[in-house]
């Protein structure tokens, strides 16, 4: 018999690792071998390696430590979900609130990633309007095409030529999802309630709102009432009208509807002239993704959450911490 015939087929445990559990742990975490590779080297089954690794954690041979910031964001996400009855919360890494462009880009990317995970073939996605919604639409990039998607506009078109108009947000999102774009052929605000009611009776708009009522997901941002707010620069209504809502306690704008700090809608003449989804209709949709952040929007976001208008939330770390305190 040759001497080589006596050589073991498995790799012997080094002297410094006489404990097979320690040696298996080293190979797995330091050398990054697979469990099957380690089993072959040690001449044991994969199930034995699984047991070794579990034993290593129990004995304190190895400890799994999460990045502190990730752990904090995960904890805040869970607490926010519990506080406001949300299904899922994504808290983005801390952003400099002074850099609005960076914050907007981060919110757009976060919202897009969540939509990509939530969307399935055949879904109908409703879209509002605004700078955040546009950032989401531009950031969308499905890993693989999904059949039968539709993106539906939920408010009429604005009179101003803004890049973040409802029709533009709808078209961009549909393009990037490979979906059918269903735009609303009506203005967002009419000159009278009677004219609004007459248009809403038209078959083309009835069909639009039927599709909205059957949607799987709606995506929206949140507006504040400050001087630089989207509502003030979007040519939907004038500053005097917005100021009157504010005087009655409005702190937030949600798809052209004004909310007080408790999330209750404040109704004025303007509301009777708006063509768009009603808030009670919004609440009936199964998945409602709110994407918003920044210190100037904290009160507005809180109002939306208190009103129960969202099931999912994407926001930044600083805003999330403030939302937990209110």
UniProtKB/TrEMBL annotation:
Provide this UniProt record's keywords sorted from A to Z.
DNA-binding, Transcription, Transcription regulation
Molecular function in Gene Ontology:
carbohydrate binding; DNA binding
Pfam family name, one: HTH_11
Q: Where is the signal peptide?
A: none
Q: Provide the Sugar-binding domain boundaries.
A: 71-325
Question: Which residues does the UniProt record annotate as the domain Helix-turn-helix type?
Answer: 30-64
InterPro entries, A to Z: HTH_11, NagB/RpiA_transferase-like, RNA_pol_sigma_r3/r4-like, SorC_transcr_regulators, Sugar-bd_dom_put, WH-like_DNA-bd_sf
Q: Which family does it belong to?
A: Belongs to the SorC transcriptional regulatory family.
Cross-referenced PANTHER family, in alphabetical order?
A: TRANSCRIPTIONAL REGULATOR LSRR, TRANSCRIPTIONAL REGULATOR-RELATED
- Give the protein's recorded name: HTH domain-containing protein
């Amino acid at each position: 018999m040759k001497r080589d015939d006596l050589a073991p087929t498995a790799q012997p445990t080094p002297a410094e690792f006489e404990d097979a559990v320690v040696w298996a742990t080293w190979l797995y975490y330091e050398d990054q071998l697979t469990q099957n590779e380690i089993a072959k080297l040690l001449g044991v089954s994969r199930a034995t390696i699984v047991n070794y690794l579990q034993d290593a954690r129990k004995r304190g041979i190895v400890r799994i430590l999460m990045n502190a910031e990730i752990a904090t964001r995960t904890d805040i996400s869970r607490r926010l979900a519990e506080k406001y009855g949300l299904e899922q919360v994504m808290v983005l890494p801390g952003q400099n609130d002074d850099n609005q462009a960076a914050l907007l880009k981060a919110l757009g990317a976060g919202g897009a990633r969540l939509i990509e995970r939530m969307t399935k073939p055949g879904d109908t996605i409703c879209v509002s309007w605004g700078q955040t919604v546009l950032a989401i639409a531009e950031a969308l990039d499905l890993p693989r095409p999904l059949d039968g998607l539709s993106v539906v506009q939920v408010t009429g078109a604005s009179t101003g030529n803004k890049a973040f108009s409802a029709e533009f947000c709808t078209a961009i999102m549909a393009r990037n999802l490979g979906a059918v774009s269903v735009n609303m052929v009506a203005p967002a605000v009419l000159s009278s309630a009677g004219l609004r009611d007459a248009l809403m009776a038209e078959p083309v708009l009835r069909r639009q709102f039927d599709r909205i009522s059957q949607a799987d997901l709606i995506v929206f941002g949140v507006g504040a009432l400050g001087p630089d707010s989207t509502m003030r620069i979007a040519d939907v209504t004038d500053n005097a009208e917005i100021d009157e809502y504010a005087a009655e306690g409005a702190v937030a704008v949600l798809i052209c509807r004004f909310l007080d700090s408790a999330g209750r809608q404040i109704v004025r003449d303007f509301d009777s002239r708006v063509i768009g989804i009603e808030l009670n209709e919004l609440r009936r949709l199964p998945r409602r993704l709110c994407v918003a952040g920044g210190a100037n929007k904290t009160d507005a976001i809180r109002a939306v959450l208190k009103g129960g208008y969202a099931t999912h939330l994407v926001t930044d770390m600083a805003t999330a911490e403030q939302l937990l305190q209110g």
